[in-house]
Amino acid sequence: MRGGHSLLRRRGGRGCSCCWRWWRQWGPRRAAGRGCTAWARTPCGCWTAAACVRPRATAQPRGWCSSIRRGAATASATHPPGERWRRTCEYFRAFTKEFTTGENFKGPDRELRTVRQTMIDFLQNHTEGSRPPACPPLDPIQSSDILSFMDSHSGQYHAVVFESNGSYVGREVILDLIPYDNIMVSRALDTDKAFLGTLGISSVPSCYLIYPNGSHGLVNVAKPLRSFFSSYLKSLPDVRKKSLSLPEKPNKEENSEVVIWKEFDRAKLYTADLESGLHYLLRVELAAHRSLAGAQLKTFKDFVTVIAKLFPGRPPVKKLLETLHEWLANLPLDKIPYNAILDLVNNKMQISGLFLTSHITWVGCQGSRLELRGYPCSLWKLFHTLTVQASTHPEALVGTGFEGDPQAVLQTMRRYIRTFFGCKECGEHFEEMAKESMDSVKTADQAVLWLWRKHNMVNSRLAGHLSEDPKFPKVPWPTPDLCPVCHEEIKGLDSWDEEQVLVFLKQHYSRDNLVDTYSVDQGSPGEWEGMGRRQEEGKGLNPSGKAWGHQDTESLRPAHILGPRTDLSKSLHHRLDLRLQSPQGPQTLEEAKAVVPFLGVGFSSLDMSLCVVLYVASSLFLMIMYFFFRVRSKRWKVRLYHPAV
Ligand SMILES: Cc1cc2nc3c(=O)[nH]c(=O)nc-3n(C[C@H](O)[C@H](O)[C@H](O)COP(=O)(O)OP(=O)(O)OC[C@H]3O[C@@H](n4cnc5c(N)ncnc54)[C@H](O)[C@@H]3O)c2cc1C
């Protein structure tokens, strides 16, 4: 085995999908920037390429690895400076019993596309006896096979990519779809022109789809490219990424929670997601801090400033954020108890027009299981929205100290994530990315694109991770169906048209694309009555709308976001919990819930203390007045009876 690979070690033994794994490494566009990664023989023994980074201490060899030069920082971080590196591909035959050092790749050039195609050839030319079972057939099928698929009603999708003899699109799409259930992909050559005519195919490559119910038709995509075909097929209803086995849920009660699916449009941004995210951020995530002081307070104040000025949501939420901003800006204190912030956020004077829902309703961020997606998804959406608003409405930041600063949102986000985000590990990853290149952002548009690029890098790192929702696979975003013009192919490799991506992002994360469907009716009496009742019962805030069983950290942890406490030791949600479990966490959370119902109106503890102070002060005043007049009246009496005195 040549050169260990962390991915192999991490994933080895978790089912045989290694063909797909190397395909993921080399297939999609992100391989272009990473190139020189050591690969060794996979556990199932597929043909495996080891694109090794090997030191060549002496003369500079032919065919320098361009991706290494581009990613110099990464290379020099892992290898001593001054050493020379070269990309070499070694191939290991599946199930080989002989000791082998691999076969050297000797293609016409060292372009990524050539390497990829050579790998496909090696895979396809595998001798039948030792064919890796996880690898699908890559040879073209015949017209008769296609006709029998049409008659078979197999209950799953069957896609056939028609292409010319030298094309690799079909095989690439087949490999792209390996990790997906409920779909089979084959390829056919364009030799039988009469058959193609019957199917209505006038040009190749084209994709023909046979539906589970037996109906069939030509797939319509904006461009006949691999990424478009793959993306279309992955987005078909019931086509899901094969799920990784998750530990069993320990609690029967929790198991009985059902996800009620809300239909939504992926091309839209939902107010409900942004508001639910804000609610979680202000009432749960922040509650892990008993008080805010110093750098923490500054971070929070800056965050509130940015969001108060740029949040494009509904007026009552904007007004609440504005009030919070003004209150924080005018507070002459170096330390603020979290309760005071919560009091303001929980403001229930509907007449004042401030309101932030206390219910969690995920729409575009809903997961196919309760523990998936939710808050982190909404946080991404919130920050993308803010970068876009800063770029399209720069005047909003005038007078805040952030005007003219292209990194205003990014730096604020960076500090928020580092200081408050429940997932510490995520914060560290984000900080690494920020350190690397955030300083290079010179305009508000670049900030929009910077965040988009980094988010895609996170997506790429987390693809196939336990926290990935099979219904929402982590893929380069926006997908071709959302933005066809954002995608192009250069030298056979997928690439982005960044100008178009910027246009798309500005439209997608704009106020005009924000829809209120599923959002909580603002300030409806029911909302407050329900909240008041729950508090009267002493059961605190429950974003899921259910009564809390007991008042501990667990109970304030919204089940919708963090899910049941399973042994998801590596999952994001577990990491999100860690900060809430900090020693002061439960105490603080208890305090956070201290909103006292009084006369049926939700008075906060701050209101109550002010009332007491006023009451005592007015009683004292009345007593002083009483004694004053008593003394004066005594004097008058004395004067009356002894006028000579
Ligand atoms: C700053 C930050 C860092 C994180 N780091 C980690 C980490 O290190 N490890 C970890 O396990 N989890 C991390 N997470 C969580 C992880 O990124 C996801 O948020 C989580 O797994 C939920 O994924 P999702 O499927 O909802 O999609 P998300 O990645 O949360 O995306 C939410 C939505 O944003 C849109 N979107 C997707 N990509 C882009 C893009 N490139 N540009 C603009 N919009 C896009 C899509 O509509 C998508 O549905 C991080 C979250 C944040 C906010």
How does this model look, in words?
By secondary structure, this protein is α+β, with helices and mostly antiparallel strands. It folds into four domains: 125 residues, no CATH class; 98 residues, 3-Layer(aba) Sandwich (Glutaredoxin); 201 residues, ERV/ALR sulfhydryl oxidase domain (Four Helix Bundle (Hemerythrin (Met), subunit A), Up-down Bundle); 37 residues. Helices cover 44% and strands 11% of the residues. It is built from 26 helices and 17 strands. The protein has a four-stranded mixed β-sheet with strand order 6-4-7-8, with helices on both faces. A three-stranded antiparallel β-sheet has the order 1-2-3, with no helix packed on it. A hairpin with a 2-residue loop joins strand 13 and strand 14. The radius of gyration is 31 Å and the shape is elongated. The relative contact order is 0.09. The N terminus is likely disordered. The structure holds flavin-adenine dinucleotide. The site of flavin-adenine dinucleotide (FAD) has 26 residues, from helix 16, helix 18 and helix 19. One of its GO terms (molecular function) is flavin-dependent sulfhydryl oxidase activity. Pfam families: Evr1_Alr (PF04777), FAD_SOX (PF18371), QSOX_Trx1 (PF18108).
Fold topology:
Layout: H1 6-11, H2 18-26, H3 31-34, E1 48-55, H4 66-70, H5 72-78, E2 85-92, E3 103-104, H6 112-124, H7 143-152, E4 157-163, H8 169-176, E5 180-181, E6 183-189, H9 193-199, E7 206-210, E8 216-218, H10 226-234, E9 240-241, H11 252-255, E10 269-270, H12 271-285, E11 291-293, H13 294-310, H14 315-330, E12 335-337, H15 338-345, H16 375-392, H17 408-419, H18 424-437, H19 444-462, E13 487-490, E14 493-496, H20 498-508, E15 514-515, H21 525-536, H22 553-556, H23 559-562, H24 572-580, H25 585-592, E16 595-598, E17 601-604, H26 605-641
Parallel strand pairs: 4-6, 10-15
Antiparallel strand pairs: 1-2, 2-3, 4-7, 5-9, 7-8, 11-12, 13-14, 16-17
Flavin-adenine dinucleotide binds next to α16, α18 and α19.
